[in-house]
Design goal:
Number of helices: 12
CATH architecture of the largest domain: 3-Layer(aba) Sandwich
Largest sheet: 7 strands, mixed
Number of strands: 9
Strand order of the largest sheet: 1-7-6-5-4-2-3
Number of domains: 2
Order of helices and strands: HEHEHEHEHEEHEHHHHEHEH
């Protein structure tokens, strides 16, 4: 294990309230490693449809090529999620702040129905900024994944991802659904992960089997850049949230703006839920629509002075 990567993993695990973390070469790689450790051909996961486009494509298009299906739920109702979990479901997947709707799921309600079915809750906490805005593990999440490229790194200098293990899911209690943690490992000298490692069984299996076989390791220089990002994370995240809320309120009052979506606004459908799970701020991303359609929207984008158009 590289010592620089090891330090990054330990720090992000501490920030998220987990017992261990495994770094990856990107957020998509981290997400794929987590799912690969849980689901095999013939299995499925349940996910909200309110997801980042790259994630949606990975779940909708790529995973089925490997025999893993995704049951998408329209919205993030715990009842709707519970209704589609079956004997082959290996995870429930949501984002802390859905991209691009900025919906905030009720972690505790979703975790409750998932655990009643013997299924872990996996949360993409990228918009939770490394635990600054949200700590899903505190509210029942079992596994957290990140694209560390964005808020954690914060400076556009590197790409990375990370998987955090809460250490709270009882793999032994759910042995029939997850034999890969109970039975001797074919790919690792007959090791029994749950029997040997207990609370860190998931993280260990991700590292010694999934990361080893996929090769999606975080390089040491990237880890060093991400560690520098962590040094200023709280300062940056606080300002991101402050600026976003100020801008959202200004846009909401602007006569040329048709709508604004930001969970910090009282008008947002997830505002009350956001107040519960995002106590330090409502994130640094918002969206809005201008009156006049695409033509007016293009004029706004072309007129930006401080904002870069990266689309």
């Amino acid at each position: 294990m590289n010592p620089t990567v090891d330090v990054f993993e330990k720090r992000i695990a501490a920030l998220e309230g987990g017992v261990a973390a495994v770094a990856a070469s990107s957020g998509q790689a981290a997400q794929f490693m987590a799912i690969s450790a849980l689901a095999h051909a013939g299995d499925n996961i349940v996910a909200t449809s309110n997801l980042y486009g790259g994630t949606y494509n990975q779940l909708k298009v790529f995973l089925p090529r490997l025999g893993i299906q995704t049951k998408f739920v329209n919205g993030d109702s715990a009842e709707d999620i519970a209704a589609v979990i079956d004997d082959r479901t290996k995870a429930v997947f949501v984002e802390t702040i859905g991209n691009p709707r900025y919906n905030v799921p009720d972690f505790e309600a979703i975790a409750k129905v998932a655990h009643e079915k013997g299924v872990p809750l996996v949360v993409d906490n990228t918009f939770g900024a490394g635990g600054y805005f949200a700590r899903p593990i505190d509210h029942g999440a079992d596994i957290v994944v990140h694209s560390a490229t964005k808020w954690i790194g914060g400076h556009g200098t590197t790409i990375g991802g990370v998987v955090i293990d809460s250490g709270k899911f009882d793999w032994g209690k759910n042995a029939a659904r997850f034999p890969q943690f109970i039975e001797p490992s074919e790919g690792y000298h007959g090791l029994k992960f749950w029997e040997t490692f207990g609370p860190i069984a998931f993280a260990i299996r991700v590292r010694v089997e999934i990361l080893r076989d996929l090769g999606s390791a975080l390089n040491p220089f990237a880890a060093q850049q991400l560690l520098l990002g962590l040094e200023t994370l709280s300062l940056r995240a606080e300002r991101h949230a402050s600026n976003a809320l100020t801008l959202a309120k200004w846009l909401e009052k602007n006569e040329h703006v048709a709508w604004v979506s930001y969970p910090g606004l009282e008008s947002h459908a997830s505002h009350e839920t956001a107040k519960k799970y995002l106590p330090r701020g409502f994130g640094g991303v918002l969206s809005f629509g201008v009156k006049g359609g695409a033509t007016a929207g293009s004029q706004v984008v072309d007129g930006f002075k401080l904002i870069s158009n990266l689309a």
